Each structure stands twice: as C-alpha cells, then as structure tokens.
Amino acid sequence: MRLARDIRALVVAAVVMAGCAPACAAAPAPPAIAAASDLSFALGEIAAGFARDRGDRVNLVFGSSGVLTRQIRDGAPFELFLSADETFVDQLAAAGLTRGRGTPYALGRIVLFAPAGSPLAPADGLDGLGRLINGGHAGRFAIANPEHAPYGRAAEAALRAHGLWEAVSPHLVLGENVSQAAQFATAGNTVGGIIAYSLVLAPPLKDRGTYALIPAGEHPPLRQQMVLLKRAGAVADRFYRYLQEPGARVILQRFGFALPD
Description:
This protein is of the alpha/beta class.
C-alpha cells in the first residue's frame, strides 16, 4: 500500500545523510530508535533535520508501543524509546531498563476518518457511525489493536463512551499498530476508522478522505513519553536532547501533537 511504502521510505531516509563520505561505511552503526507508529512521519522529518543540523544519523523502527516494550524487555538493541503511552515507559523504568523515567514529549489525538466514497460522514461524529450500524450500512471499521496499541485503547474508549463498542465489534478490522489501522481505513474496503491525528495530517493521507477530531474528553489522554534505554550511546543522547529543542517541537505541533508544559 502507498502509505506503507511511504513509511518504509521515511525509515530509509532517516538513516541516510546527504553528502556522506566513503568513510561513513566504516563509521559505527547509527543507534536504533524505537518509536510509536503515530510518529511515522513527524519523527522521520525530525531525524532528517538532526542529520542535517548535527551530522548524526539514527535508525527509526516504528511499531505499537506495547510490542516495542516487549521487544525491549526481550533484549532488542534499542537505545531510545518514544512511547505513545507513558505507562509503557513506567514499566520499563520499573524493570531497570532505562536511564531514569524520561520526559513527556507530546499529547496525541485521535480522529474519525472516512475514505473517499464512504457513507460515513466524520462531521457527524461517532453518533453518525452508530446510525450506519443501526441502519445495516456499516462495513468494516479499522482501529489499532487495543491489546498493545495506545491509539487502539483510545479508540475503544471513545466507542464505549458512545455506547457503540458491542455494536461495532463484529465490524472491526484491527491493525497491529495505528499506522496499519490507517492503511486499512484508506484501503477502500472499510467505511473508515479511528486513527491518529498525526497520520491524517501527513501528505499520504491528506487527500484520501475526510476526518474529524474526536473530543479529548471521550478517551484517556494519550500522554506520550520518551526515555533513554540503558544501552544508549552518545548519538542517542544527542537525539533525545534534540527532540526537546524548539525546531523538533514545531514539527510535532505541525503534525497535530499538543506539547506538554
């Protein structure tokens, strides 16, 4: 799918530094950064700026926060973790796998999204989805898997807040993470989905359908936290600090993230 190709291209671009001399082949491998998939586009842009401004490269690996947490517990060689949910960072810190408890970097939002031609009108909110279901017109509906994806948990909470969880459950198609849920929501065989605001603002999705923000009070806050892991080296530490600088924060805001105080 085009979105998947764009995400893979960003990962590749994040580890390529323009003008790299042949000596780069002998340089140490760039640090592996584990990041929640709602950051697929924003973090790729920040990493490119880091390479340009600091001359350092990072290797971005995106996935659901729960799966990445399990991989870190199992010894995956990540040096920095950007989670979509602060509780996963707390778990790793309690297990002694981090350098401190990290710092919050963003507040995420979810949207109701409908691809072009869908009978779902996001402007009508989740009540409109309920009317489709009651009228027998609801097709498949995409969210991230709530078992390990914070954006899936937020989607489930919003659906429950409208009394729709039981009715929509038979129609659900679950993405491994919110990026995969976005792929499903735009594939043309769903009526839409609940996905990350940061993804619908990215170029691959901007013209693929319509969306409306789901009120923040209808789901637990997506407090996103990042932390250096015990194996972190100097480059990962510099990238961690770079993420807290004004330039990186501006990019996060442009992709729809609110910034913590």
